[in-house]
């Protein structure tokens, strides 16, 4: 399982995403795979009836962001050594909407929280876990992205009714002891679950026809579907599934608890980035096969 929130930058799941993303950086993207959703759905996490109110003038005069440089496509170094990625460009868009100067620096994963708590930076935009433990020392902006779980099936399967009754007659590949396996056990207990030791093994079972479906992390799957290893075999079906107890609360920006004006400013800017269309441009740039 690829955790939508980085709790361990050396996790095997994070390594899988790194491999998939790096493979796409040197291989041509499959043109048909890009058409899995002819009109990709850009997610919206903001209330359309809400109206952003800017913080008082001078309340935030600059922002020092920190992130990492080893978690593509969210934050990484491009071929010229420049820090880039979805999170990085989103931070830059926030600063543009707030009309304040910003710096965005890469730091080791283990130093991000301490950097914010100790005042060496103002905000961490790196997918830090939002949970009871992290909330003891940090506050978070509104969520700006979530990592849904998705099913994928072979293309020749066509449209599949994702009801519990139908899934009871299907073999569903999943990674053993993952949150996705636990979700299936709770919400699709009759499904014919076939657990595998790794994402690669489970996806290979799907390609070979040893399983009818695979259930896993949507972000990871969006890159796999574009890549050579998928061979244009498969497509998303059903979903997305966003149960926070299994898949986390999503991506948000971490700040110090006392930084109320900054948090307000970030929330205002995030809403404006979305309403202006800039968010959609970033989402489609880094996730051309949308996972919603």
What's the short version?
This protein has 10 helices and 13 strands. It is α/β, with parallel strands linked by helices. The chain folds into 2 domains: 37-146 and 249-286, D-Maltodextrin-Binding Protein, domain 2 (3-Layer(aba) Sandwich), CATH 3.40.190.10; 149-247, Periplasmic binding protein-like II (D-Maltodextrin-Binding Protein, domain 2, 3-Layer(aba) Sandwich), CATH 3.40.190.10.
Textual characterization of the structure:
The chain is of the alpha/beta class and 292 residues long. 33% of the residues lie in helices and 18% in strands. It folds into two domains: 37-146 and 249-286, D-Maltodextrin-Binding Protein, domain 2 (3-Layer(aba) Sandwich); 149-247, D-Maltodextrin-Binding Protein, domain 2. It has helices at 12-26, 86-98, 112-117, 164-167, 179-187, 199-208, 218-226, 244-247, 260-275, 278-286; strands at residues 63-67, 70-71, 75-77, 83-84, 102-106, 123-124, 139-140, 149-154, 171-175, 192-196, 213-217, 234-241, 254-255. The strands form three sheets. The chain has a five-stranded mixed sheet. A five-stranded mixed sheet has the order 10-9-11-8-12, with helices on both faces. Strands 2-3-4 form a three-stranded antiparallel sheet. The longest helix is centred in the C-terminal third of the chain and has 16 residues, at 260-275.
CATH structural architecture of the largest domain: 3-Layer(aba) Sandwich
How confident overall, as mean pLDDT? 88
The main β sheet shows up as: 5 strands, mixed
Beta-strand residue fraction: 15-25%
Major sheet: order of its strands? 5-1-6-13-7
The overall number of domains is 2
Structural class: alpha/beta
**How many distinct beta strands?**
13
User: What portion of residues is helical?
Assistant: 25-40%
Kindly provide the name of the CATH class of the largest domain. Alpha Beta
Radius of gyration: 20 Å
Distance between the termini: 17 Å
Name the CATH homologous superfamily of the largest domain: Periplasmic binding protein-like II
